[in-house]
Structure formats: structure tokens, C-alpha cells
Amino acid sequence: MAESPEKKGSKGKNVSRGRGSLNEGIRLYRLKRWELSLKELLAVNTDRFSPEENLELAYYLGLCYTKMERYDDALLYLEQVVTGGQDPLRTYQCRLALAYIYAITKRSKMAEFELKRLAHSGFESAQLYTTLAYAAWLQKRYKQAVEYYEKALDLDENNTTALNGLGYILVDTDMDIIRGLRCCKKAIDLKPQSPAYQDSLGWAYYKNGEFLEARTWLRRAMDAAPHHAEIKEHFKTVTG
Question: Quick check: 214 and 202 in contact, CB under 8 A?
């Protein structure tokens, strides 16, 4: 059946609004305006979208939900891209995001599975190894975590996540307290406002027997993140 000119025109506008909303959502995402980006992306009209455009939409929805810490929603869309995508770089980014979510939600073995698939495919990066290290740390495999953090630093000697993570493990497990303190100092020099790094440095000073410095840095961490359980526990230990 032939469509009326009005219906054709209406469909054309819907298609335009669909692509336009997607472009606007992407623009807002790149500006780090996650909530506005998500609102725009969820309003996209996909009636006439190609499979590639649907995957592009899923990609940005997954990233937005990850940034907003809505991890169950993020997994739904990221997995769509991983299973249906043809772009190797985008698949890599989504697998890395999946691994991060699995690690942060304590599903460390699933995180390792995703990351090792990437490593075997030749996708090495400092971020990949820091996430592997975090997953190993969650499973109390401290020596392996140290090895992964060192691989990350081989690729990027100023990677603050690796410096802080390595330093914390070395002092917390008494593996190498002096080296751990050096790593924590370097991380805080590069990123002085991070309460996580302030906590690690305070704990490193405590383990080195420098209690005044330990209290100073842990107080800064407490002021910045007063509800963080680990920081509270360290502060309580150091202040008696």
C-alpha cells in the first residue's frame, strides 16, 4: 500500500531525530555530562537504524551506565557490543569496561577471563594490567598482583593507578615496605588530591613507623572521603 505524503514526511523526521539524538548523546558523553547524555540516548528513535547504528547506540549506553555506576545496566549493553561488534578497537574497549565492572563488583574471576582474552589477542595496555592486578588482589594473590602492576609500569612508568596499587600491596603485606613507600610517594606527587592515594601513603608511613606523617595523610584522606570504610579503618588504627 502506498503511504501518504504526510506519513512519509513524518517518518523522515523520526529518522532525522533518531540520528540527531544519537549524535547529541555522543556529544554530551564526550563532555562528561553523563546523565544528560543518557537521557538523550534513551530517547533515540531506532526504527530505521542499521545494525551498526544500534551497536553504536549500545556502546555509548554501556559507557554512560558505567560512568554512572549502574553496572547491571551497563553489562547488558556492553555485552551486546562484544558479541555483535565488528570493530576490534570498540570490542577491546568494551571488554576492558566489562572487566572493570566485574572487578569492582567482586566478580574477579570473570574479570580475569575478559582481560586474559584481550592479552592473548595482543591488546596490551597499562590499564589492562592494572585491572588484572586489582582482580588478583581481590583474590589475595598478592605476588601475582605485584607482577601485573610491574607490567603496567613497564608500559607506563607514571601510571598512578599502578604506582599506588603496587605501593599499597608492598606495604600492607610487608613484602617491601621501603619500596612501597616510594611508590606511594610518587603516586601522590602525580595526583595529590586523590583520597585513595592519601590513604595509601598514610598507611605506608604507618608501616614504616613514621606515625606523625601517617596521621597527617590519613587525616587528609578522611576529610576528603569520610565514609570510605578502609580509610576509616586505617585512621582508627593509626590514631589508636
Answer: yes
